[in-house]
Specification:
TIM Barrel
Amino acid sequence: MDTTALENTVTALLAPGKGLLAADESFPTIEKRFALIDLPSTEETRTAYREMLFTTPGIGQFISGVILFDETIRGKDHAGTPFPAVLERQGIIPGIKVDRGTTPLVNFPGEKITAGLDGLAKRCAEYRDLGARFTKWRDVFAINEHTPSPAAIAANAEVLARFAASSQEAGLVPIVEPEVLMTGNHTLERCEAVTERVLHGVFAALVAHRVALELMLLKPSMVLTGEQAPQQASDEAVAEATTRCLCRTVPAAVPGIMFLSGGQEPITATRHLNAINRRGDMPWVLSFSFARALQIPALYAWKGRPENVPAAQRAFYHRAQCNSLARQGRYTAQAEQEGGQQQAA
């Protein structure tokens, strides 16, 4: 394992004021996104969309890395430049989603486990040759009266640990993503308790598999009230519950925590990230690895039309800039409004 290369990648991904763009949507997911703007999902439209995002002028000020999908890391822009090289021109590090999606966990109705360990070492080596310097693997945990079960937590933690070990062995920084879903009507307290159990299980497995904690990143959910709950928690309550949970579960050796947005509205995710970072010094860098919360305004501005690319790029730039401020605890309503006025102009 080349620890120097891994250390350099971690440092670059955690550069001050920067976070990650998750652009690793699978074919079914990108089809759902494009359905929002009545656009068919084809290789041509997917390529045009990713090119619009990746070539946004100045986006490297706020984005340190992009998580790609298999099709995208092999793809090229309209000029024939491979997408990893397009990103590198902006000073952005290419990464890759290496899991193969969730599948039902046998004997545990409603619970999932993530597939993709078979052939992982070979895929990691290939992706490294294609330009990737980090990987990501997502497992999901739904909250209801009976889930997640201890067996589901243990099984998914084992998979995440094996993924992380394989990635480091291949010279790639693993981003471990145990997502506690915000679907449901659960309370903030219930989400915190579940997230704590999940993270305890994940780190026990990572340690058991001798994963170098200093050479990985964590991509967890924020602790949130269920989206169908009648009353939503305040930004400050979310920040307090999230940081308390992390302090109880995540070793200080982990260099960075890159929160997923998990279906939150873009401005809500930014406000929550800002409140978390305003709570003061923590053992880790607290940043973002957002998909929808970075992309949705740009998607609606773009609508699949070439003439809308400048407006879409302004929308994407604005959201990235706002999240950069939130990563520093410096986001304000004024910054949000000023960016919106610039987009309109």
